């Protein structure tokens, strides 16, 4: 249809059998989801076509590689990245991808990021939640972020289940009666948002001013809180930090799983149209509702085209 923007969706998940063996129950979601996670061509592309999605940027589903034992992590990540590159090679006009990294081995993770980008053509990396219970602002993870900056590729911070102690103290017993309490309903956003906040407060963006970070779900509530956070972190007694400036300069947010007019308006007001990218969160969310929502959203068509695909092309060099 004339005037319809191209749609590139950048948080779209898959599962790789060579990694699934290490993930236990996490590798066995409901059958309707599992079938789509392991599929690339028979169901995924027809659903993309029906929705109007030109390309998916694929990433391994949570919990990813952040809980893998050191003795298997490097090989598992290489295998997943190689398998993903093979899928992309079969349909390069429909797929690109983010690498998995053995983050508990930061130097090896940095080297794997280089290999995945320079040899396999992947567009950055995705990390899933805490690394063996640690937040990624710890000094020992700096090699990963330094390498991402040097390669000029983003790191996508994706949620995973909260730490067990947090679940026990903050979310129980509702984690049993309402499973979304620790997942998309609340816990996911709190955890991923906290990762981002800690990275800013750590000073990593002073060391690496060109580091690029992506957050899903329209920024894990940070755009809504940004003005208050910036003011609070600027008060006397805090180590100086230009919180809002760093967030607006070094972060991008995606629409994954969050097709809300009011939330998008907030992000546009706080970040502007150049920092928002379209995503679906496939197969946990349907592609067509996301496309139809953004198509219908009342905004300048040139800015809408940026969100639909233009910003992804610029950020990921597609």
Automatic annotation (TrEMBL):
Segments traversing the membrane: none
Keywords: Hydrolase, Lyase
GO BP term (any one): secondary metabolic process
Keyword Ligase in annotation: no
SUPFAM superfamilies: Metallo-dependent hydrolases
InterPro entries, sorted: ACMSD (IPR032465), Amidohydro-rel (IPR006680), Metal_Hydrolase (IPR032466)
Organism domain of life: Bacteria
Residue span(s) of domain Amidohydrolase-related: 40-318
GO CC aspect terms: cytosol
Protein name: Amidohydrolase
Protein's organism: Histidinibacterium aquaticum
Origin organism lineage: Bacteria, Pseudomonadati, Pseudomonadota, Alphaproteobacteria, Rhodobacterales
């Amino acid at each position: 249809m004339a005037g319809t923007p191209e749609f590139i969706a950048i948080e779209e998940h898959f599962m790789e059998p060579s990694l699934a063996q290490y993930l236990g129950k996490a590798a066995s979601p409901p059958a309707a989801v599992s079938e789509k996670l392991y599929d690339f061509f028979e169901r995924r592309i027809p659903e993309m076509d029906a929705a109007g999605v030109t390309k998916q940027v694929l990433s391994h589903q949570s919990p990813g590689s952040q809980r893998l034992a050191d003795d298997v992590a490097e090989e598992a990540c290489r295998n997943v990245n190689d398998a993903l590159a093979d899928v992309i090679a079969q349909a390069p006009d429909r797929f690109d991808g983010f690498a998995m990294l053995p983050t508990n081995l930061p130097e090896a993770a940095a080297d794997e990021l280089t290999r995945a980008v320079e040899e396999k053509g992947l567009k950055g990396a995705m990390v899933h939640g805490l690394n063996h219970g640690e937040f990624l602002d710890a000094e020992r993870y700096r090699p990963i972020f330094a390498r991402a900056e040097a390669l000029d590729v983003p790191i996508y911070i994706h949620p995973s289940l909260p730490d067990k102690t947090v679940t026990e103290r903050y979310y129980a017993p509702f984690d049993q009666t309402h499973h979304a309490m620790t997942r998309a309903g609340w816990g996911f956003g709190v955890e991923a948002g906290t990762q981002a906040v800690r990275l800013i407060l750590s000073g990593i963006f002073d060391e690496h001013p060109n580091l690029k970070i992506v957050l899903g779900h329209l920024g894990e509530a940070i755009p809504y809180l940004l003005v208050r956070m910036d003011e609070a972190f600027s008060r006397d007694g805090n180590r100086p930090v230009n919180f809002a400036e760093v967030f607006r300069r070094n972060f991008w947010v995606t629409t994954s799983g969050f097709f809300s007019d009011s939330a998008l308006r907030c992000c546009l007001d706080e970040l502007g149209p150049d920092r928002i990218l379209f995503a679906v969160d496939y197969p946990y969310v349907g592609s067509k509702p996301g496309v139809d929502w953004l198509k219908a959203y009342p905004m300048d068509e040139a800015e809408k085209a940026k969100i639909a695909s233009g910003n992804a092309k610029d950020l990921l060099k597609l």
